[in-house]
Amino acid sequence: xxxxxxxxxxxxxxxxxxxxxxxxxxxxxxxxxxxxxxxxxxxxxxxxxxxxxxxxxxxxxxxxxxxxxxxxxxxxxxxxxxxxxxxxxxxxxxxxxxxxxxxxxxxxxxxxxxxxxxxxxxxxxxxxxxxxxxxxxxxxxxxxxxxxxxxxxxxxxxxxxxxxxxxxxxxxxxxxxxxxxxxxxxxxxxxxxxxxxxxxxxxxxxxxxxxxxxxxxxxxxxxxxxxxxxxxxxxxxxxxxxxxxxxxxxxxxxxxxxxxxxxxxxxxxxxxxxxxxxxxxxxxxxxxxxxxxxxxxxxxxxxxxxxxxxxxxxxxxxxxxxxxxxxxxxxxxxxxxxxxxxxxxxxxxxxxxxxxxxxxxxxxxxxxxxxxxxxxxxxxxxxxxxxxxxxxxxxxxxxxxxxxxxxxxxxxxxxxxxxxxxxxxxxxxxx
Length: 431
Description:
This protein is of the alpha/beta class. The chain has helices at 12-27, 52-71, 82-86, 88-94, 110-115, 154-158, 166-178, 203-211, 232-240, 257-263, 269-282, 301-314, 340-363, and strands at residues 2-8, 31-33, 42-47, 76-81, 100-102, 136-140, 142-143, 162-163, 183-187, 219-222, 244-249, 287-294, 318-323, 369-377, 384-388, 400-403, 411-419, 425-429.
C-alpha cells in the first residue's frame, strides 16, 4: 500500500485534473492518501503555469517535495499539469530529482506513470474523486482556448478550444449527482464557446437544458462566460430556469476601447454597457461577477481612471483584480511592461473602491429572504454554519453565516439579518 500526498495548485479547471489523477489512483485499491508530505511515499504536485506568481508557487512546492525526497530517497516526486506542459524541457533539465512528469494531455496514463502498472479505463471521468465539499463539484465542459487574448498563455499550454462530447458531460453530471453533488459549477476557459469549435450555435444552451434534467442536481452555476459569446437566448433561458442560478461570471478584463483592443478582446466599452443593461433588465436579481487586469502595458492613467469610474457606476456584485504579468510566448510580451509600483498602487486603489461597493451591495440584502446551501461549520463564529446564496460562488465570493447547526449540502430558507463584513452576511433560518 503506497501512501500518497497531493498538492493541487491553480484554478478549478486544474483541480478537476487533480481529481481525475486521484480517482484513477484510488481505483487501483493500492494507495492511501495522506495529508503530510513526511508520511507520503509518493508526492504529487499538480502545477499552475499561467502567470509568474503561480509559476513561482509551483516551483516552491516542487522544491519542498524534493527536500522531502532528500531526507528519504525512497520517496517518489511527481510533477503534473500546466507548468510542466509549458516548460517540459527546462523542468526535466533543471529538476533531475523529479521521478515522474505528467502533461495535461497524459492524465489518463497517471496510474501507468506513477505506479508503473497498466490501468486505462474506457471512461476515466467516471473514476473522478471529488476534492471539494461533497455537495459541490466542478464540471469541465471543454479544454483549451481559441480566443487568443494577447496576454494569455492558456493556448500555449492547453491548445485550441475543444468541446467535450455532450453525452460524456451528461454522464459525468449523473455520476456526480449519484455521489451527492447538489451544486454544479460549469467551467472551461470559455463556457459560452461550448460547441463553437464544432460549428454549433447555442451549444451551451442545449447542454444546460439537458443538465437541468439530471436528478439530484439542484443548482447549476455558470462560470467563465466570455462577454461577446453571451447570446440573448442564453440570457432568457437563465431568467426562466429552475436550476441555472441568476448568477453570471463575465470576465471583462478592462473597459477602455484602446486597452481592450491591445488585449485582443473581441468587444468594446459600448458592448459591455449594453450587455450589463440587457442582463440586468432580463434578470433583475442577477449577481454579476467579473475580473479585471490592472497595469496592462497600454493602460494609461486615463484608462485606469475610466476603469475606476466604471466600477463606481456599475456596482458589480463581485470583482477580482489581477496585476498584469508579462508572459513569454504571448503577443503582449513584446509590448513592454509598466513599473511594478504603478501596478501595485493601481491595484490597491481598485480594491479599496470595490470594497466599499461590496458593502453597499450587501447592505441591500438585510431584511430579505434567501435560500442558502450549507458548506460546513463556521470555525470563527460559534453557533453558526458557513452557507451561500445564489449570489455566492464557492471560495471566490462572500459567505453567509447562518445561525444553527446543519449538515453540509442542506438547503435552508433564511432571512438576512446583518453584515458580518464588507463581503459576508449573517442570517437566521425562517422557522
